[in-house]
From TrEMBL:
SUPFAM superfamilies linked to this entry: lambda repressor-like DNA-binding domains, Periplasmic binding protein-like I
PROSITE patterns per record: HTH_LACI_2 (PS50932)
Official protein name in the record: Substrate-binding domain-containing protein
Domain HTH lacI-type: 5-59
Lineage: Bacteria, Bacillati, Actinomycetota, Actinomycetes, Micromonosporales
The species this protein was found in: Phytohabitans maris
Keyword Zinc: no
Keywords: DNA-binding, Transcription, Transcription regulation
Pfam families reported for this sequence: LacI, Peripla_BP_3
Top-level taxon: Bacteria
InterPro entries for the chain: HTH_LacI, LacI/GalR-like_sensor, Lambda_DNA-bd_dom_sf, Peripla_BP_I
């Protein structure tokens, strides 16, 4: 049996890099005409996936999108992005796209994976998750003209703009299409629910400062509770044991809160385990654990977020106008804990 012809085989025959072959197949406008012709001749001579290659050169589209599988975490909040991936796959199929999954431990490992994937597969674009301050992944892709959309807004200057006027980002320099959930609105809704129930000293358990999502969730609590009082807030890494310790600390102060708003269901599960009767607890993400424990929690519209990501990226690939960012409202699911 003849050896399988790959992009590497074509690259060696045309005396170019694998990335150049990938560019000819996916983004031919980035490659000089002379080089494009040499690569196309190599494809024809070697018979490299003749039908697929011909279709790609004709349409410039593979209808293949790549997205990362998140690293394993505590099994509670890690399920959130698992649900997003299910929604993404379900939304992509009717639109004519397939999803390619990959793993990476951090930003630099993910960028290395981009480089490898672009040299090996004919990708149309990427869906990025877990955006954060100093996120270098978006600039890497943008500098190379690779289409992408993010589930999560760009943080920093652009992220600050997005909190108040998301549509203003659509024409901003360095902007890109994104979909996010209004995290501040979620904790604000939980806090209002507790105020309506008669609570006046409402504590907050969240993550250390500097997390875009975590800071937004704290901001929603602070603005609605009326004051961001240091004695009523605790910051810790995510986890059930950490939530338990933070709640125990808050409930031990001289004038303790009568309710706790938590930035995640993991923290809320820990807090709920040590909260005495009468102390209300709310979580965030409405995970299966929240449902089992009876935790009031903020639910993210993950299926809608996934569908909007597909819509925005498809719009970019179709050459439409710069898409407006999408900021989706969450909803509060009320249960026995609050």
């Amino acid at each position: 049996m003849a050896d399988k012809v790959t992009i590497a085989t074509v690259a060696a025959h045309a005396n170019v890099s694998r990335q150049t072959v990938s560019n000819v197949l996916n983004t031919p406008h980035l490659v000089r005409e002379e080089t494009r012709e040499r690569v196309r001749e190599a494809i024809a001579v070697l018979g490299y996936r003749a039908n697929q290659a011909a279709r790609l050169m004709r349409t410039g589209r593979s209808h293949l999108l790549a997205v990362r599988i998140e690293p394993t975490r505590d099994g509670i909040n890690g399920s959130v992005l698992d649900r997003f991936l299910h929604g993404l796959t379900e939304a992509a199929a009717p639109a004519g796209y397939r999803i390619l999954l990959y793993a990476a431990a951090d930003d630099q490992a993910e960028i290395a994976t981009y480089d490898d994937l672009l040299a090996t597969y004919e990708l149309d674009g990427f869906v990025l998750t877990s955006t954060h301050h100093g996120d270098v992944r978006t600039s890497w892709l943008a500098e190379r003209g690779v289409p992408f959309v993010t589930f999560g807004r760009p943080w920093g200057r652009l992220g600050a703009d997005a909190r108040t006027e998301p549509a203003a980002l659509s024409g901003a320099a360095g902007s890109h299409p994104w979909v996010d959930v209004d995290n501040a609105a979620g904790t604000a809704a939980a806090t209002r629910h507790l105020l309506d129930a008669g609570h006046r000293r409402i504590g907050f358990i969240g993550w250390p400062e500097g997390s875009g999502v975590g800071d937004e969730r704290r901001a929603g609590w602070a603005a609605t509770a009326g004051a961001d009082l240091p004695e009523l807030a605790r910051a810790t890494v995510d986890g059930v044991a950490e939530g338990e310790a933070a709640a125990h600390d808050l409930l031990s102060i001289s004038d303790p809160p009568t309710a706790l708003v938590c930035a995640s269901d993991s923290l809320a599960a820990g807090a709920y385990g040590v909260a005495p009767p009468g102390v209300a607890v709310t979580g965030f993400d409405d995970t299966a654990v929240a449902r089992v424990l009876g935790l009031t929690s903020v639910a993210q519209p993950l299926a809608e977020a996934a569908a909007r990501c597909v819509d925005l990226l498809a719009g970019v690939l179709d050459g439409g106008a710069a898409p407006h960012p999408v900021l989706l409202p969450p909803s509060l699911v009320i249960r026995q804990s609050a």
